[in-house]
Amino acid sequence: MTKLFFDCEFTGLHQQTTLISIGFISECGKTFYAEYNDYNTEQITDNDWIQTNVINTLLYNNKSDGILQCNDTGSKIKLKGSKHFIKDELIIWLSQFEQTEIWSDTLAYDWMLFNNIFGTAFDIPKNVYYIPFDIATMFKLKNIDPDINREGFAFDDIPENAVKHNALWDAYVIKKCYNKLNKL
């Protein structure tokens, strides 16, 4: 089973939140990154933190819609578009894996938002295992405070190109944390 490390950025910690971006990195390094053009902007008008730390770090912040960039093998995808466009491209990307399991940081919002991409939990692709996993629990099981700084734990020196609160970067950090925790 292939492990996929997943993160998402969204408009706030509330029930009606909408996705701003998603990022996946597989254990073998294949990536998928998408930015939504149809998130609810009204939910962030009074939230300077989301504007500064999420919106301002988007790769395609002021670019047109429907962007799709991929390498020759299709293993590294970056795109911007509507939730329907992103869903269709994500289904194609996920189909390259026979069976997958999703790993995230803390899943309270991420897993629900992942399911919402497809409509409901019953509509996620058949090759995605229906039980998600999270590194926060893994930290706890290893007797490490689950509130630990993830980048500080994952790296001796944080790379200069790090873009905290970018979904793809955060997925990469989750993967690094998982790999380090797994060796303890």
Keywords summarizing the entry:
184 residues; Nucleotidyltransferase, domain 5; 32% helix; alpha/beta
Short overview:
With 184 residues, this protein is an alpha/beta fold. The protein is built from six helices and seven strands, in the order βββαββαβαβααα. The model has no long low-confidence stretch (mean pLDDT 91).
Provide an overview of this structure.
The chain is of the alpha/beta class and 184 residues long. The chain has a single domain (2-183), classed as Nucleotidyltransferase, domain 5 (2-Layer Sandwich). The protein has helices at residues 48-53, 83-94, 107-118, 135-141, 150-154, 167-183, and strands spanning 2-10, 19-26, 31-36, 67-70, 76-81, 100-104, 133-134. The relative contact order is 0.19. The model has no long low-confidence stretch (mean pLDDT 91).
- Integer average pLDDT: 91
User: Major sheet, described briefly?
Assistant: 7 strands, mixed
**Count of beta strands:** 7
- Please compute the radius of gyration using only Cα atoms: 16 Å
